[in-house]
Amino acid sequence: MGETTMKTFRPTLQHQGRRVRLWCCSLVGLVLVLATSAGKAASDSLLPPDRCFGMLLDTSLGIPAENLTKQRLRTVQYESLADALRQLTSFVPLRNGGFGQYDALSVLGGSSQHLSMGSDGRPMLDLWSGQFHLLQQPMATLERIEFLYGSDAIGLAPTASLTMLNAQSSVFNTATPFMSMWYHQGAGDLIAASVTFSQNIAPGWNIAASVRRSGARGRYQRTDFGLWNLDLQARWTIDQRQSLLVRLGLATVSTQVWGGVDRTAGEASIEQLSRVRYDDTLSLEDETRRHDATITYGRVLASDSTSQLTLQGYASAQMLHRLQGPALRRT
After folding, report:
1. Mean of the pLDDT values across residues 266-281?
2. What is the pTM for the complete model shown?
């Protein structure tokens, strides 16, 4: 389920800060309440969570080499999921240049439109593009990334290349409050940070919250971008065979549309004098927002985990705000 709206607005990256303050205040309040009212901590060992919950591949013979676990992700420096995939896989990277773009991978000769994305098995895509913007995926919420292609992706990937990435939600099991912080800084005034909090609040119950902020000015004029993520999840390990996961994800990406470097200009051969096609006089900017709510129930039917029943319901609301300017009317 989803909806798409298109509106006209004045391009500015500053308006994001006002809108997401409520998200951050709510998250901080949640962390403080849980940290001060937890009382006696829940047991770490009672009802351990199902580590395979949300996975699609058979791992009885071992984890495939292409899979990216959260342990492997900690071994590289990355700006986004697309950047981590480029460094940790052998697939051909597809980069559009600049920050905040629809970067992807080419798997089995496919283009960026042929790369499907899922979260615990549910499809994730943007209604206006038919693909998922990998920048919107918060890294702190990943337990692992599965690569499904060929016969493994039948019924999951609607494209000709039959390629899908499945993001398994992070699994936490800690009696005492757990918090992790991540920070990244790079060229183009790139600054990114995320904070994750998790704790067992009762036997079999775990809650987790993650907030992420990223932004940059870019190398050229009008190559700015801004990103906010908020992810909340509650996991209930009912018994050794049953699990329930409720998850809410919010993402806002604001990208200035600049059209690439203008190679027809006389200064194009001199990097310091190069300029983008859509400069300040044209002022273009896209802002995308998505809200995803997912509830997943899983039950292991056989004691050896050879068969499992999964029931899932989800809802998505998606919005695209696009400035309609002279440059768009010309193209």
Report:
1. 61
2. 0.76
